[in-house]
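A common beginner's mistake is to predict each chain separately and then try to dock the pieces by hand. The better habit, illustrated here, is to supply every component at once so that their relative placement is modeled jointly.
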Amino acid sequence: MRAGLLLAAGLVLAGASAPGTPGVYDAEQAHVDYMLKCQGCHRPDGSGDEQSSPPLHDMVARFLTVPGGREFLGRVPGVATANLDDRRLANLLNWTLYRFDPAHVPTGFRPYTAEELRTLRQDPLRLDRVAMRARLVAGFAR
Ligand code: HEC
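With all components supplied together, the output reads:
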């Protein structure tokens, strides 16, 4: 019953949010998934915190501008190990980019697909992610 209501509400909202965002087949689903799986760390507004979770706001799409950044976004543990199927994860990651950092999404960006994330998440980053992240961030344009 509750799931049915949520679904109905989601359909109404998704219908209202045209024109769509590239690679986002269901914006309302993405928002709910973000609330349930991501915002505890990254905060509802994507601001993160200074200690543990990085901001997504005005930041996350910059990774798409440096070599290796696209793969990094699919392999960070918060993304790669999320309890979502590949299609829903692609929907969520594409939504995250446009929701929090549309200004840095490069022209000609190809949205993540379920197939791409299936491959990337098979190889989640572990301790190496800290150094990799620092190297990528150092390459961002100022
Ligand atoms: C337990 C806290 C936590 C959760 C939950 C979490 N993240 Fe993260 N996220 C992090 C941390 C910490 C990093 C920095 C890289 C690292 O050390 O894993 C990060 C990095 C990222 C990055 C790469 C950008 C960057 O600045 O490093 C993206 C994209 C991202 N998270 C998205 C998500 C999404 C989408 C979800 C929900 C499916 C999620 N995260 C859930 C803590 C979290």
